[in-house]
């Protein structure tokens, strides 16, 4: 694996290149995670694909500036990474936040995306009719971001906490944490890498986005992977049905028993669905005028 530190308008973005075998495939992680979440998935792609993963700004080994977390900025970070690595077109596989970044990238730089895999992200609006959340924006963010950051006496204490609370603890989760570097606090304690205030900025930017508008200009094939057990599956399937008519090719798969971060508990099923999608185009017949799908 090769590591790159790429300057994106003064912010350092960490990128990881695992292979150079074939077509590029870029993995984008969920909020609060890092490229490490894909460690149980990436080995299955390195023989056939040019595999890249990045730490989104405010995550992992990338810089954590206090400002600059609009989705457009995260998209430009991706563009900068691809430009520096000399990659013009790529597949994109996202989880949650990574799906939002990938889908907006595909809507802006449509000629640069071969296909898009959206695992539990960019599948529904956060607010508004049919959205995930019914409370006010203020109520929502007070609920999720008002608590103080957790503090631990040492890295080992943090890891032990994760083993007790990040369940079911298994080899896939252990892979993520094996070289985890907690953020050091001024009082000598440690906490999780991503700052709560930075994640709140991302979440606030996403809250009022009309995700369906991104698909207006997406030209690549899209695989939708909503989780069966995460909740709001009906809302997500209704959203997907609405936007798939805008796409030339798409496929929707609900892997049984999956939750939000399916790469940990259903890695092999996730790998299978992605590989099948990448190698075999699924043609979708678009309805004619007056025809109901």
Automatic annotation (TrEMBL):
Residues 24-121 form the AB hydrolase-1 domain. InterPro entries: AB_hydrolase_1, AB_hydrolase_fold, AB_hydrolase_sf. Keywords: Hydrolase. Pfam families: Abhydrolase_1. The keyword Amino-acid biosynthesis does not apply. GO terms for molecular function: hydrolase activity. It comes from the Bacteria. PANTHER family: HYDROLASE, PUTATIVE (AFU_ORTHOLOGUE AFUA_2G14860)-RELATED, MONOACYLGLYCEROL LIPASE. This is Alpha/beta hydrolase.
């Amino acid at each position: 694996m090769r590591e790159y530190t790429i300057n994106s308008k003064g912010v350092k973005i960490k990128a990881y290149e695992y292979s150079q075998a074939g077509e590029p495939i870029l993995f984008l992680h969920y909020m609060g995670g890092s490229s490490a979440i894909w460690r149980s998935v990436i080995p299955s792609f390195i023989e056939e694909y040019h595999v890249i993963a990045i730490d989104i700004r405010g995550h992992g080994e990338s810089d954590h500036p206090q400002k600059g977390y609009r989705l457009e900025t995260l998209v430009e970070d991706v563009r900068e990474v691809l430009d520096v690595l000399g990659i013009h077109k790529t597949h994109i596989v996202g989880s949650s936040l990574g799906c939002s970044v990938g889908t907006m990238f595909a809507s802006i730089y449509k000629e640069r995306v071969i296909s898009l895999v959206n695992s539990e992200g960019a599948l529904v609006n956060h607010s508004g009719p049919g959205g995930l959340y019914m409370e006010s924006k203020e109520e929502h963010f007070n609920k999720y971001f008002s608590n103080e950051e957790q503090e631990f006496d040492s890295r080992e204490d943090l890891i032990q906490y994760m083993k007790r609370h990040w369940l079911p603890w298994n080899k896939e989760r252990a892979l993520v944490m094996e070289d985890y570097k907690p953020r050091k606090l001024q009082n000598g304690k440690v906490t999780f890498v991503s700052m709560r205030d930075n994640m709140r900025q991302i979440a606030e930017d996403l809250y009022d986005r009309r995700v369906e508008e991104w698909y207006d200009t997406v030209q690549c094939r899209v695989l939708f992977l909503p989780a069966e057990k995460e909740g709001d599956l009906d809302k997500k399937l209704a959203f997907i049905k609405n936007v798939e008519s805008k796409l030339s090719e798409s496929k929707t798969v609900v892997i049984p028993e999956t939750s939000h971060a399916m790469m940990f508990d259903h890695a092999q099923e996730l790998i299978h669905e992605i590989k099948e999608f990448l190698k075999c185009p699924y043609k979708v017949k678009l309805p004619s005028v007056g025809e109901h799908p």
